[in-house]
Amino acid sequence: MSPILDDEFDLNRIIIKPLYLGLVVNVLVPMAILLVCYFLDKNQSWFNRIGEGANTLFYAIVAVSLAQAAVALWWRTQMMKKPMVRSKETFEDDLVHSLVARSKPIFYLIALIALWGFAYFYFTARFEETLMIVLFSFVVFQVVRPRFGFARSLIKAQKELVEKGVVIRD
Question: Does position 6 have pLDDT exceeding 90, yes or no?
């Protein structure tokens, strides 16, 4: 499979590391924990610890999750506005390393949505609502994850910053 090139840059190389990190943090780990929750639900070895407060807790988690999703989207757009490159000569390498480093907290924030779902299951033993919360975190990850269009926009924004002399200073 040939790399997708945008003029002089390998877009696959730029997005692959943060994408794989996001897949592990936001898909594989939550799916594994969700499988454990499903097993506990089907074996009826879990019980509702908070009783009538389960619905209130669900709506509180939904509100917090929506806020976290909004912050993740905002954070991703703000990432492009800050310098991620040291020089023209090291542009692609710097961009790859900076994108991975700056994507980590965003992906962890999205993973926290899934963790709220697991906390909800722990307290209520309601698998269906837990599944909805975790699926919402998957959707947020799909919206935020790096794509080729995002990489092209990032390259353009970073080129403009480098041309203005705005680079990362050690």
Answer: no
CA–CA separation, 129 and 53 (whole Å): 14
All residues at 6 or more sequence positions from 54 whose CB lies less than 8 Å from its CB, including other chains: 48, 123, 124, 126
Give percent of the chain above pLDDT 70.
95
Contact in structure between 26 and 137 (CB atoms under 8 Å): yes
Cα(17)–Cα(22) distance, integer angstroms: 9
Asked whether the beta carbons of 83 and 113 are under 8 A apart, the reply is no
Residue 130 dihedral angles phi and psi, to the nearest 5°: -60, -45
Among the residues of the chain, which ranges form H helices? 11-23, 29-42, 54-79, 91-124, 127-144, 148-164
Q: pLDDT tens-digit profile of 130-156?
A: 999 999 999 999 999 999 999 999 999
Report whether pLDDT(8) > 90. no
